[in-house]
Specification:
Helix content: over 70%
Mean pLDDT: 86
Strand content: under 5%
Number of domains: 1
Radius of gyration: 20 Å
Largest sheet: none
Low-confidence stretches: none
Structural class: mainly alpha
Shape: elongated
Distance between the termini: 42 Å
Order of helices and strands: HHH
Number of strands: 0
Amino acid sequence: MIVMLVAWLMLIFASFGYRAPRNAVVAASFIGSAALIAAAIYLIIDMDVPFSGPIQVSAKPLQRVLVEIQRP
C-alpha cells in the first residue's frame, strides 16, 4: 500500500513539475509539498504499530473497555 501511495505521489509531482515554470514560488511550493507528504507517510508508517515508537497511543482506554466488557 505504501509503495502504491509513493508511486502515485511521484506521478503527481512529475506531472506538475513537467509543465511548471522555473521560479522561486514553484520551487518553494514543491519543497513544502514534498515535506508535508513525507510527514504524512511517516505518520502512516509510525501508526502501523501504535503502542511503540516516537508517537504512542495509550492502552488505558482499551483496558477500561475490556474490564467493562468482562463484567457480568
